[in-house]
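dude i think i finally got it to work??
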Amino acid sequence: DFVITVLKGGNYQLNGEAISAQELEENLRVVGKMSDAFPVEVHTFGDVKVDKFEKVKELINKHLKSKVTVVVKDTIEPKLEVAAALNMDMVGRLEDKLVLQGIGSSDAWPQIIERKNVVVGLPLTLSDDTDLPTDATSFYQAGVPILSAFTGSHSDYHTPRDTPEKLNYPDAARIAKLMGLVAADLSKMETKPKYVRQESKPKKAVRGGVRAYLGTVPSYGDDVVGVKLSGTTAGAPADTAGVKGGDIIVELAGQNIENIYDYTAAIDGLKIGQETTIAVMRGDQRLEMKITPQSRQ
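look at this
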């Protein structure tokens, strides 16, 4: 059966899919040659211009003649809404965990994720954070629940060293499967996930220009005060200073560091080539080291 919907502005749908007038006519021509009797429903709306609807009737009469049953329905045009924004930003280098961020944007996420990950079996870390340095944040700020998948930063990030052979293709496919299952679940829900507004974390003002480079690799998804590192880039200022993977940065250049935003702002205040101090927690021990920022090569 064909269900043709005439939308405002002269646009059309065929069985729920957008279609041009030319494509619609071709479909009608083909079925007219194949079938002696082919049922067609024409849906329209009260404020659609009459000539747009008459054009569809002309096409039906031209190609199907008396072989068609036309049912005209005066319906309400559906209101298109975004139920949620799913984001996969840097998911090709899974090592020990997949971080799912934005959990705090809706109370529906934990149950959906738990149910769908039974099928996939990925090691997960769930993060409530909704103020993310990625595309999903603009959706969240517009009142849309978000779910962002992230396999973590690494020493090759944003460098030419991030080459194809370093990608974890099998686990990238598993991540895509998980997000696909979540999307399928959302499509079957009678109501969209409830949006939850989170209180934004304070950010310090940053300056423009070239940012200093330390070569630290943050470990996202850890519930700590400060910035936990998964490692440092060999030969970079942090490595030379003695900073190690597992350290938690708590102070940089006299600035207290409680989160990634404090850390980014502190880096933006550094001067390239000018020595400063960095303090980390290594286990229960606080260590202070001298560090000289460089420019990114």
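The chain has seven helices and 17 strands.
im so relieved honestly
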